[in-house]
Design goal:
With 208 residues, the protein is α+β, with helices and mostly antiparallel strands. It contains five helices and ten strands.
Length: 208
């Protein structure tokens, strides 16, 4: 066997091992063109958001649908129940939409919603430099819209870097599982497996 073929075989074996590890966290529904982040994965990503956004005291799955976030503002704890519904992948940015279970109870520019979106940004694999909260947040009725630079979101990049610009992802978070519907069928070969594993398991080495 040539050196090239040996390297190729080693690479393929490595990907198989990574894939087997990641199957605990992710699964596919090829017929429905769905990628599913298992509840175990969602909880790990929630813990990462809690650990990195100071105002976000708790982010947990709701027993039926969506997530509940507990945010501290002026020494008062506020709880929000929300469901992520849509993500659009643009060339340089990612635009998203979440639905609140109740109409907004605070001002549009409130730190409450900026903290909520900060937590969601970390969930998607982003960072909050120096604790600065996102400013690209807009509220209309019971919808919260946000925009993030696409190259800052490690989870989204690891999962969706092969998708075309303007691709729309429809998201459903029910009973702990996050289902993501895509216009194209994805397979393990479309993912940056090493990057994906690092993002998902980062919580095990991060300090609360």
């Amino acid at each position: 066997m040539s050196v090239f073929n040996k390297l190729k075989a080693t690479f393929q074996e490595s990907r198989k091992l990574l894939q087997k590890t990641l199957e605990e966290y992710i699964k596919f529904s090829l017929e429905a063109k769905q990628l599913i982040l298992r509840e175990k994965t969602v909880l790990l990503l929630c813990q990462q958001a809690e650990s990195r956004v100071e105002q976000l005291k708790s982010l947990q799955t709701h027993p039926e649908e969506g997530l509940t976030a507990t945010i501290e503002h002026q020494k008062v704890l506020v709880q929000l129940h929300f469901t992520p519904e849509k993500i659009t992948l643009n060339q340089d940015s990612l635009e998203g939409e979440i639905r609140l279970s109740k109409s907004p109870q605070f001002e549009t520019e409130s730190i409450i919603y900026r903290s909520l979106i900060a937590g969601w940004k970390v969930f998607l694999g982003g960072k909050i430099p120096n604790g600065a909260l996102p400013k690209e947040v807009r509220i209309e009725k019971d919808r919260v819209y946000y925009t993030f630079p696409r190259n800052q979101l490690q989870l989204a990049d690891a999962l969706f870097h092969t998708l075309k610009n303007d691709s729309a992802l429809i998201t459903h978070l029910k009973q702990g599982d996050l289902r993501i519907e895509t216009s194209e069928t994805l397979s393990w070969n479309d993912f940056k497996l090493q990057n994906l594993l690092q993002v998902i398991t980062a919580q095990s080495t991060s300090a609360k």
